[in-house]
Amino acid sequence: MFSDSLRRDAAKIGAHLETVLSAGPNLPVIEGMRYAVAGGKRLRGFLVMEGARLHGVPETQAIWPAAAIEAIHAYSLVHDDLPCMDDDDLRRGLPTVHRKWDDGTAVLVGDALQTLGFELTLDPACHPSAEVRADLALSLGRASGRDGMVLGQALDIAAESAEAPLTLDQITELQAGKTGALIVWSAEAGARLAQADLTPLTDYATALGLAFQIADDILDVEGDETTVGKAVGKDADRGKATFVSLLGLEGAKRRAAELVEAACEALSPYGDRAQTLNHAARFVISRDT
Ligand code: GRG
User: Fold this and answer.
1) What CATH number should be reported for the domain holding residue 171?
2) 289 located within any domain
3) Ligand 1: distance of its center to the CA of 77 in Å?
4) Pocket residues for ligand 1 (CB within 6 Å)?
5) Which helix (H) or strand (E) holds 94?
6) Residue at 212 is within a domain
7) Does residue 128 surpass a pLDDT of 90?
């Protein structure tokens, strides 16, 4: 079953992060880093591992970018939860980092997790070729920074004070940065390690990233706070334009299903070998957390 494969890889990625973070002084920032990377579905790390398997890349190498992307993702959640951003008390069913410690610790935890992400892709154990490691780190910078996730987050913040609600095209562009860019990087990483053509995985993950965000908007409307592990209903409370507010609940579900079909179609060059990634695409729109 797909959920078993996801859990297996999640455990391996979690163990790798624990090893990496096991040393260090007894300080809130170090404890906060361990706390922030614990739990979660680890979908991004799973995409790295599965993309690597598809290209015959050993797990001992793939685990590095898989842990890296989970560190970067965790940093984004810690900073997004801060009072100056989304001001959330709950993440993965537990108090957010700034609620458990304080704002300053949460800023440092996010900063240190971000730099850890780059450290991990550049570790010599990740790939014998420095050129491949540099390609991973450069593309990770582009996906997570001003051309990717930070850009999407900045567009999201700007939209809060904009005169008119965002259009569907604008939301699509915003989300391609905010959540899509890390998902695309994750799916491409295995092909980067193998120095193979990225195109099928780029196309797969571009559609998947958008479907993931639509599913997130649907969960904000239909999800249960205890199961989702974070506050729900926030978008509607703020009158924020989302895929659900623009397409309606049924329209959003239809669009997400079309995107999943497009994602699977993009993997046709891999034939049956892409079955697990096809299951991952279906999982993204059927999840309840
Ligand atoms: C602070 C620079 C900066 C960026 C923050 C990703 C992000 C940008 C904010 C997160 C806000 C949010 C809830 C976005 C919706 C999509 C999303 C990233 C959900 C959480 O990802 P999951 O469901 O979480 O993969 P787990 O806990 O499973 O890892």
Assistant:
1) 1.10.600.10
2) no
3) 5
4) 40-41, 43, 73, 76-77, 79-80, 92, 149-150, 153, 178-179, 216
5) strand 94-95
6) yes
7) yes
pLDDT at 253 over 80: yes
Q: Which atom of ligand 1 is nearest to the CA of 144?
A: 2
Contact 106, 78 (CB under 8 A): yes
Residue 133 clears pLDDT 80, i.e. is over it: yes
SS3 141: helix
| Crossing angle of helices 275-286 and 43-54, rounded to 10° | 160
pTM of the predicted structure, to 2 decimals: 0.95
> What number does the ligand 1 atom closest to the CA of 80 have?
1
Looking at the structure of the chain, the number of domains it has is 1
Q: Is residue 127 part of a domain?
A: yes
Average pLDDT over residues 258-279: 96
197 pLDDT band, cuts 50/70/90, is very high
Cα gap 237→78, rounded to integer Å: 22
Q: Please give the number of the atom of ligand 1 that sits closest to the Cα of 156.
A: 8
Element (H, E) at 96: none
Distance in Å, CA 103 to ligand 1 centroid: 18
91: phi then psi, degrees, rounded to nearest 5: -145, 130
236, part of any domain: yes
Task: Please give the residue range of the domain that contains residue 97.
Answer: 2-284
Position 278 confidence tier, pLDDT thresholds 50, 70, 90: very high
Per-residue pLDDT, 134: 98
Question: Distance from the CA of 272 to the center of ligand 1, in angstroms?
Answer: 31
Over range 268-277, report the average pLDDT. 95
